[in-house]
Amino acid sequence: MENLILELKKIVDESKDDNLPNDLIRNRLKEYLHYFVLDFIYNSKFKDLIFYGGSCLRILYDLPRMSEDLDFETDKDLDFKELVSALKKYFAENLNLKEKISVSKDTGINRIFLILPIMKELGLSVHGSETLRIKIEIRPVGADYLKNIKPIFTPKFKYGKSFIIKHYDLPTLFASKLAAILSRPIKGFAVGKVEEKINFKGRDFFDLSWYMEAGILPNEEMLRVNGLKESIGEVFDRISVFISGAELKAGLKKDLEPLFISKSFVDNFVNNFRSRFQNLKDEKYTAKKIQK
Question: How far is residue 197's CA from residue 59's CA, in Å, rounded to a whole number?
Fold first, then answer.
């Protein structure tokens, strides 16, 4: 564990030299440790897990924001208890790190929380009980889910690790993000105080803007299997209605500040998001533009 702690302390020292707050330093540490989890998964019998979500964008497509969690889907029979046991063994044997693992299951999604009691040792807390938590989510999907959706494979080399990641392409990831944006309010998602009325994740809208700036068209089949039967143009119309009717600024800022070093960038993004979204939609994502 000594070498790992030294590397993590180096990240902490560099971050403190940059005068970064602790929540940003935590996310830098998480992003470093993500590679160890991916090394475990993609060099093991669990390599058929399909990587998606914000960390997938960050690691494989250079999304310019930090990401906290690791998200996977699988259409295979997964022995979840065996995966948890193997992950714990990997961290103990390869990193000599005696973490705690918490597991839960909600609406069919398996969640693993790696709980690492290293914050005091890294000089980020005076309390020995304070931990760094990394969430891993695994969403089972039906046999027909991937019938017309083909994952792709990309090799990755970093921090002395090498593995081949199974993941979705950008149009498929974009469709998954659109489905998440529209489903969160329906599922009762909420953060913060009740009076704040935040029923969305700010990072979803940053990612949405990033996809739109790049001109990515979402995979219609992925929209369909996630319950969105409308055309692409109609999906964007629904998102436009939500954006126009929601109080966005507080929720955007609250969620995005721990994911960017530059607070001024977050402020500018928050203040201009609504108009920029509408401009991008009109330029690229109306029904007529998509048909062309």
Answer: 32
The residue extents of the domains of the chain are 2-167, 170-291
User: By C-alpha distance, which of 149, 163, 151 is closest to 34?
Assistant: 163
- DSSP code of residue 257: G
| Superfamily designation of domain 2-167 | JHP933, nucleotidyltransferase-like core domain (3.10.450.620)
- Run of H or E including 154: strand 152-158
d(CA 245, CA 227): 23
Distance set, CA 106 to CA 137, 145, 283 (Å): 10, 20, 39
> How far apart are alpha carbons 196 and 35 in whole angstroms?
35
> Which residue in this structure is represented by tokens 């790049």?
214
The average pLDDT across 22-51 equals 96
CA distance 64 to 17: 21
**Tens-digit pLDDT profile for residues 134-153:** 999 999 998 889 999 999 99
CA 5 to chain centre: 25
110 token code pair: 């398996």
Q: Assign 234 to helix, strand or coil.
A: helix
